[in-house]
Design goal:
By secondary structure, this protein is mainly α. The chain has helices spanning 2-28, 32-57, 61-88, 100-122, 129-149, 153-175, 180-208.
Length: 221
């Protein structure tokens, strides 16, 4: 039984590392569609982790949130973002306020901060949380970093989804998920937010022939 737990813990650790790697790709790539694919793959890995935790814990409502997450964040939202990208005919790729090399260096610093910030906590927690909590915090912080350093509205949407993935993973690893009604509310909020932001992206493109959020300053004039 103990060997079985160790093996499953190692599988979860591998999935967590892969989620972190796809998030780093989101930070370090200059191709918009690659960013969307990276976000979709991370969300898929998260659903695999969620399903495994549901199986090991015997908490059935996690299966429901896993299924909803799979449909929304792996198929519906990426498909909607690909549609928006094709609809607005984006000519330039991802633009950042800082260089990609510096972004990757800062990302490494964020990961180290997340690890050392959670070190006093993970020493006393269960085997699944031991490595998942630092990764979930790092993913959340990297999502926030993407939101504040990227110019295009779509990459900021991806940053928002990344933050939600990190928070969902943190909830799974620390308390086997939030109450079902809370998780359903979060998923609904994310879906509505992405749709609204996608509409704004289209309107920005129509008005300014660009989706650089810096053009919002012109709306005050």
């Amino acid at each position: 039984m103990k060997q079985h737990i160790i093996v499953n813990s190692q599988i979860i650790d591998v999935l967590a590392v892969l989620m972190l790697m796809t998030t780093i790709i989101l930070i370090g790539t200059s191709r918009l569609k690659t960013c969307i694919w990276a976000s979709a793959i991370r969300s898929f890995l998260l659903t695999l982790t969620s399903g495994l935790i549901a199986y090991l814990s015997g908490i059935h409502h996690i299966y429901i949130t896993t299924g909803i997450s799979l449909v929304l964040k792996v198929f519906v939202i990426p498909g909607f973002l690909f549609y928006i990208v094709d609809k607005v005919r984006i000519k330039k790729e991802v633009e950042s306020y800082i260089s990609y090399t510096l972004s990757l260096l800062i990302s490494c610093g964020i990961i180290l901060i997340a690890y050392y910030a959670t070190l006093p906590i993970i020493q006393f927690e269960n085997v699944f949380m031991r490595h998942c909590l630092p990764v979930s915090l790092a993913i959340t912080l990297l999502g926030f970093f993407a939101m504040i350093t990227r110019k295009k509205a779509i990459t900021q949407i991806l940053g928002l989804i990344t933050m939600e993935d990190g928070l969902f993973f943190a909830a799974l690893s620390t308390s086997y998920g939030m109450p079902l009604i809370v998780e359903l509310g979060v998923f609904f909020d994310i879906l509505v937010s992405v749709i609204i932001m996608g509409v704004y992206v289209y309107r920005i493109k129509e008005s300014f022939d660009s989706i650089d959020v810096g053009f919002f300053r012109e709306l005050r004039e």
